[in-house]
Sequence to fold (120 residues):
Amino acid sequence: MNIFEKIVAGELPCNKVHENENFLAFHDINPKAPIHVIAIPKRCYKSFHEVDEEIMVGMTKFIKEVAKKLGLDENGYRLITNIGYDGGQEVPHLHFHILGGTRLRWIDLRENEDEAKRSL
Fold:
């Protein structure tokens, strides 16, 4: 059972932002922005590639509700999902990072250019 499944099951606490019968949003314990919330489906899908379109319709509506509740819908926010090892996914459970509360900059996301070239 992964950490998000334990949160959904009530085995681990979270700082809940919003919830309905299918989805849960809570504050990230290691925030990368003034507002950093994780939105997940309560049912575990390993990644974006495993989820069907019907779930994503509900997830889209839910994320918009969370953004509005947090006051991010006016000035904007960043929505990120990481897929697989190279994408930076650390928890094998579909989740979206909702980041905002300030103007977000874009950085070079490569860990190490030399290392990437060596692996070719």
